[in-house]
Design brief:
- By secondary structure, this protein is mainly α.
- It has a single domain, classed as 3-Layer(aba) Sandwich (Rossmann fold), CATH 3.40.50.
- Helix 7 links the parallel strand 4 and strand 5.
- Helix 1 packs across helix 2 and helix 5 packs across helix 6.
- It is elongated and about 50 Å long.
């Protein structure tokens, strides 16, 4: 199994450097690939911030990662839940934090936007202010 850094995943979806895209494809096809949750979060940040990709295209790319047969995403069920919330307007990093806290009674934050979006999506655990 190979674990991958964000830059390999970005190359595949950004398609901005033919040589690196080819190298990334070969590296990812050679074995089972492990993608840490942190790579998922950073991938969204890079695609949004650097490549100005839309929420829909980022969500689609993340779903492709989750659905790829030889890819093992760390805590895939949690990431899938977070991607769904992201599709519906939640910040991806916030969604991963919240989904990763499913075992808790509540998630406490000063972030009003997160509280509002989580309430609208009926996300669990419930998000409250301190």
């Amino acid at each position: 199994m190979r674990a991958v850094d964000t830059n390999l995943v970005v190359r595949l979806f950004a398609q901005d450097d033919a040589e690196q895209v080819g190298a990334a494809r070969r590296a990812l096809a050679a074995d089972t690939v492990f993608v840490p949750k942190s790579v998922i979060i950073e991938f969204e940040w890079v695609m949004r911030g650097v490549y100005e990709a839309s929420r829909a295209s980022i969500a689609s790319a993340l779903q492709t990662i989750l659905d790829t047969a030889n890819v093992e995403v760390e805590d895939a069920a949690t990431v899938a839940r977070a991607v769904d919330w992201f599709r519906h307007g939640m910040d991806l990093a916030d969604a991963v934090h919240l989904a990763s806290s499913a075992h808790a009674d509540c998630f406490v934050t000063f972030d009003r936007t997160l509280r509002r979006r989580a309430t609208k999506l009926q996300a669990k655990p419930v998000v409250i202010e301190p």
